[in-house]
């Protein structure tokens, strides 16, 4: 019995010291990670449907569908479309309006209002003036933080055509996880803008 007891004592001391050390050690949580995203090569195709007052190039990995309900409201005309990115659960909403008498300033004001309505969740809103090789002018908005849409724009000829675009994801806004996708799709939005042309009736 004595030999057995002398063997148990060191084992018990080891176990007690192990648990005491484990309880007092510093716990370091593992950093939050996100799934690796495989991005396709930027390649484009033409959107030039008959009857539409505009044309542009859009990615080959996107689909264009006619917008039949814009956020539960009926589009004002048949030229509103969605550019869907199934791989990213993302969509660019494209709305078009024909400029009426003295309505250009109102359309610009409405575009700014629609962007700044996300300001309660935004950490920043930066607007940049644009002018394309085809003479199309407009404003591009970068919205920081966890706003529902991080990339928006409007373009116009200030006389007849006014087009607005906004990028949304079919998921909860998260600037950290969506940041790299936003940057990737921003390049596609800029390509769309730089290849946009107005059509004469």
Can you walk through the features of this model?
With 201 residues, the protein is α+β, with helices and mostly antiparallel strands. The chain contains 3 helices and 10 strands. It has helices at 2-24, 104-116, 175-194, and strands spanning 44-47, 54-59, 63-66, 81-85, 90-98, 122-131, 137-145, 151-156, 161-169, 197-198. A 7-stranded antiparallel beta sheet has the order 3-4-5-9-8-7-6, with helices on both faces. The protein is globular. Residues 30-34 have low confidence and may be disordered.
Distance between the termini: 106 Å
Count of runs of 4 or more consecutive helical residues = 3
Shape: globular
How much is the average pLDDT?
83
Largest sheet: 7 strands, antiparallel
Radius of gyration: 27 Å
Strand segment tally: 10
Low-confidence stretches: 30-34
Assembly state = single chain
What series of H and E elements makes up the topology? HEEEEEHEEEEHE
Structure class:
alpha+beta
Spatial strand sequence of the major β-sheet: 3-4-5-9-8-7-6
Helix coverage percent of residues?
25-40%
Taken as a percent bin, the fraction of beta residues is 25-35%
């Amino acid at each position: 019995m004595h030999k057995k007891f002398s063997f148990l004592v060191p084992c018990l001391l080891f176990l007690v010291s192990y648990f005491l050390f484990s309880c007092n050690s510093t716990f370091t949580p593992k950093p939050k990670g996100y799934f690796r995203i495989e991005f396709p090569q930027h390649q484009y195709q033409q959107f030039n449907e008959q009857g539409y007052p505009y044309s542009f190039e859009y990615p080959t990995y996107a689909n264009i569908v006619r917008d039949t309900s814009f956020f539960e409201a009926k589009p004002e005309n048949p030229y509103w479309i969605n550019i869907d990115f199934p791989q990213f659960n993302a969509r660019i909403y494209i709305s078009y309006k024909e400029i009426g008498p003295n309505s250009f300033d109102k359309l610009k004001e409405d575009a700014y209002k629609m962007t700044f309505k996300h300001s309660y969740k935004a950490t920043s809103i930066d607007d940049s003036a644009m002018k394309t090789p085809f003479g199309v002018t407009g404003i591009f908005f970068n919205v920081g933080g966890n706003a529902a849409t991080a990339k928006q724009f409007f373009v116009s000829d200030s006389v007849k055509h006014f087009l607005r675009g906004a990028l949304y994801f079919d998921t909860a806004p998260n600037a950290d996880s969506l940041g790299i996708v936003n940057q990737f799709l921003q390049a596609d939005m800029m390509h769309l803008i730089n290849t946009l042309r107005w059509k004469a009736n």
